[in-house]
Amino acid sequence: MSTAPTGGSGPSFPYPLVATDLDGTLLSPDDTVSARTRDALTAATAAGAAHIIVTGRSVAWTRHVLDDLGYEGIAVCGQGAQVYHAGEHRLLTSVTLDRQLAGLALAKIEAEVGPLALAASRDGLDGEVLVGPGYVVQEGPLPVIPFTDVAELWSAPLNKVYVQHPGLSDDDLAAVARQAAGDLVGVTMAGEGIVELLPLGLTKATGLSLAARRLGVKAKDTIAFGDMPNDIPMFAWSAHGVAMANAHENLKAVANEVTSSNEEDGIAVVLERLLP
Predict the structure, then answer these.
(1) Strands 145-146 vs 194-199: parallel, antiparallel or unpaired
(2) Res. 138 pLDDT band, cuts 50 70 90
(3) Residue 115 CB contacts under 8 Å (≥ 6 apart), including other chains
(4) Which partner for 49 in 13, 14, 208, 255 could form a disulfide, CB atoms 3.0-4.6 Å apart?
(5) Which is nearest to 130 in space by CA: 67, 63, 61, 176?
(6) Cα separation, 162 vs 198, whole angstroms
(7) For residues 162 and 196, is the Cβ–Cβ distance under 8 A?
(8) Mean pLDDT across the chain
(9) Contact 186/97 with Cβ under 8 angstroms?
């Protein structure tokens, strides 16, 4: 999959940067990219655009997908914490969570709602994902390491902590976490069962802006595609935000337009319309 501008002649693509979320957006439910979407992205890059994948997944949980896609450009991972060069298999930047603040944030949230099930993503190219008792992990090929002693959670640098509650919805849990500890950590909802505690102020827009600077493009040059509330900052940063038909209502509310679902080539539908 082509990921950078070719500098070819002829009419240019109206947005020099195409930023796409991964799960629920670029990927079909079977974790593949359709031929139509691949062709549309290839045509956009041939017309002068760069393509950046911007995902909540950490690098360790993203690399195999990028390799399968033949993606060799820059990817923003870990909700903006990690900027990764896929072609060189190299981490360019990485932001870690203050573990002392995260522990205090968890205590404040649990004081409001009771015990939480916990997981965490460690920093680095091979950062393990630790999963505690009661935390429900989505089925798939991604490896996890179980833990029983919460002290293990804080034993190495982390990019994020995942929280789940047995009774609250994801939206309600995120709202309570924000209210209880939003002065200590960032809180985002990235998908079903995925509420995350992040370094304060960190969003997908943070990582995307760093990656765009490396490519010499700006926010006004960017069209972004996404499906979840964690994509809201990316839409706010970009010139044009496109929500998938399967997107969370909060993202649709701030999108410039809504396209077809990820199962129906929603990215391709928009790119084909914009292609010269």
Answers:
(1) unpaired
(2) confident
(3) none
(4) 13
(5) 61
(6) 9
(7) yes
(8) 93
(9) no
